[in-house]
Amino acid sequence: MRTALALVAAISLSVAGTAALAQSPQSTGSIPPAATTPAKCENPNALGVARVVEIDTTGGPGFGFEHFKAYDFLQDKEVVLTFDDGPWPAHTAAVLKALSDQCTKALFFTIGKHAGWHPEILKRVVAAGHTVGTHTWSHKDLSRLTDDEAKAEIEKGIAAVSIATGQPVAPFIRFPALRHPPAMVKYVGERNISMFSTDLDSFDFKARKPDQVIKTVMSKLEKTGKGIILMHDFQQATATAAPDLLKQLKDGGYKVVQITGAKPTEPKKEFVEMVRKEMGGGLEDARPMSSVIRTVPAN
After folding, report:
1. Residue 35 burial by Cβ neighbours in a 10 Å radius (0-12, 13-18, 19+)
2. Does the predicted model carry a pTM greater than 0.90?
3. Per-residue model confidence as pLDDT tens digits over 156-203
4. SS3 of 54, please?
5. Under CATH, which number does the domain 7-23+43-281 receive?
6. At 148, which helix (H) or strand (E)?
7. Measuring CA to CA, which residue among 264, 265, 260 is closest to residue 8?
8. Domain layout of the chain by residue ranges
9. pLDDT digit string, tens, across residues 217-232
């Protein structure tokens, strides 16, 4: 299942070049391509992106030592920033600002329903040059579903994110609760989608204060020296912690690696139609809510 894997490091790329590589090829299916124009970095002392790793996801290779130990592509002091469960009002925007201020990039694992509720926020993630994978349709535990139900969770998630962003998604998925039913591992392998576990979990869903998130991540990094970091842009504590966490990563000599896919995942037509029917129209053309809706004085 893990044959034909190629890990290609892009060396000495500027942030602008990194953003260009992160854009997915145009879709040849029913999802039109979306324009992305990441802003140029103006901070010479930013954390930045040390290198870009492109993954050939043929056969569905897995990453993250908690579950998958075949591929150790990170060098000492290198990290991959990953965020689950978005997009979400206010919190995702705060994470995006922190990343932008440090001119760095992350891998977002997006819930399909959330993409349908907040497509304008997800469009900002894409426009900033981040990589967007999927986190199923509604974050159900796939191990508790029938095979057909679990496949629908995966495919509806892919379809919803594709519709919301206006382009095929990156070929990456993170299973809810990091539970990997063997049948679904086989299925995503057949779809040439790579699975991401983690090297270190921030456990930010348990944290009430930003300092707890930072302490957990930095203390675990001291032990591992590198790793794929699991966080949630859905969580307020993480959104608040992001600026200081990125600064501490920079001060600690850590370097960010951005993950991109060699070939995006095209949504299946039947699930695109299913999601459009369920979520309604307007997802593709959604503007920021503030430009559509405002509160006016009552008479």
Report:
1. exposed
2. no
3. 999 999 999 999 999 999 999 999 999 999 999 999 999 999 999 999
4. strand
5. 3.20.20.370
6. helix 147-165
7. 260
8. 7-23+43-281
9. 999 999 999 999 999 9
